[in-house]
Write a structure and sequence with these properties.
The chain has one domain. By secondary structure, it is an alpha+beta fold. It is built from three helices and four strands. The termini are close together.
Length: 108
């Protein structure tokens, strides 16, 4: 299921991943697995989207996320114009490169 975007804001879907959908969207099956606050930092000419983890909810966890959260980020990003892959920078300094295809078993 796809959440609608706004004209002129092609990367809004990334910011929307950090917000729980309203009840009406949840009833339609939308959810988020991302619990950290993230920030889209840019998209390079070769399609690499840089995303940074900027805050974790409890301050205790940073680093590798659960696979469903990574899949949601990668697949949402690759559905956007000109994005072919994602580089996630964690608060602890680690970096993970993601592609939606890496999570084929998790997609419906």
């Amino acid at each position: 299921m796809v959440r609608p975007g706004l004209p002129g804001h092609p990367y809004l879907a990334i910011a929307q991943l950090t917000v729980s959908p309203p009840a009406a969207e949840q009833r339609r099956g939308l959810s988020t697995r991302i619990v950290s606050t993230i920030e889209m930092r840019g998209v390079s000419a070769d399609g690499l989207m840089e995303v940074a983890e900027v805050r974790v909810p409890d301050g205790r966890r940073s680093g590798p996320w659960p696979r469903p959260a990574l899949a949601q980020l990668a697949c949402t990003a690759e559905a956007l114009p000109d994005v072919t892959r994602v580089r996630l920078r964690y608060l602890d300094g680690k970096v993970g490169d993601l592609r939606c295809a890496d999570f084929a078993g998790l997609r419906e």
